[in-house]
Design brief:
Order of helices and strands: EEHHEHHEHEEEEHEHEEHHHHH
CATH class of the largest domain: Alpha Beta
Bound molecules: iron/sulfur cluster
Number of helices: 12
Strand order of the largest sheet: 4-3-5-9-11
Number of domains: 2
Radius of gyration: 20 Å
Distance between the termini: 50 Å
CATH topology of the largest domain: Rossmann fold
Length: 326
Amino acid sequence: MVINYASNHTIIRETYKGSVFMEQQHFAELCQKLNQQGDNISKSVLDEVNKYRAQYNKKKLPVIWIETNDSGDNNIAFLNTTYPYAGQVFTDMIDLLYSNSFMAAQGKNALNILEQAAEKYKGRFTLVVEGAVPVKDNGLYNIIIRTENRSITALEAVTWLGNLAEYVVAMGTCGSFGGPSSARPNITGSMGVNKILDREVINVSGCPVNPDWFVGTLAHLLMYGKPELDDLGRPTLFYGYTVHRHCQRRSYFDRGNFAEKLGDIECMFSLGCMGPRTGADCPYRQWINHVNWPVKANTPCIGCTNKDFPDGSSPFFLPLDKKGKK
Ligand code: SF4
């Protein structure tokens, strides 16, 4: 069997079976051929990660996960992960050392946990930042830990932890590029993590992120280290092709048949679809346990993985040449 490798169009052959266990190439194939089998990436990935960890005695990925300036949509999307379910991610894939969204500790107790984790796992943990970072007024508009004596802003936490981490993963479009948190008029001065840190940041964009993109990125870090990234710092495994390339309505576009209103079956380029300039694998990975995605649900792609989302996509239902105007 021959398949296309999404990142560079190189033709690779299914030679991994019978060779060294779980080559990186094998992992890439797993991520890309999910729908050909009616399967999904998360289930395949968990099985393979568990086998790999057992064979090579790999430890789980230590993760410090901080939620900053976002709507909470990304951790909710993550909780929709299936095979592995969220609990399995925590028990089998990652050591969640700290999370201001998922843990019970508060205030000084939470700060103690964070300080101890950052010290113990210095240079080895993965920092996940879910949300943008407000910088106006010294970051005052997003405080992630408050004790009796101290308030720690997202700006302070990201700067501190980002310089200690082995990898930094920006989860969602706010974390990656500022996203809705930095939309006009951006009164908090919010921006993406890579504008705060003078180091490489892996951007797993999306508003919200697809759970597969996030879980798949963590799995890649655990097994092989940093995945191949595109020029926006995103894993090419998931963002290497445009939505438009694999859209089910592409034949209408190619024949110039465009929808006049929502609900029409033709291509929705005329209704503001951003698919032609949005990198993401939504048409075949889909959402909600892999059953649907916006165009299939009769609404245009709004380009939520893009660097200029949402300002560059607005108004959502006007054609591309009319978007992004103030
Ligand atoms: S609906 Fe959007 S993504 Fe699909 S073919 Fe039309 S323009 Fe492309």
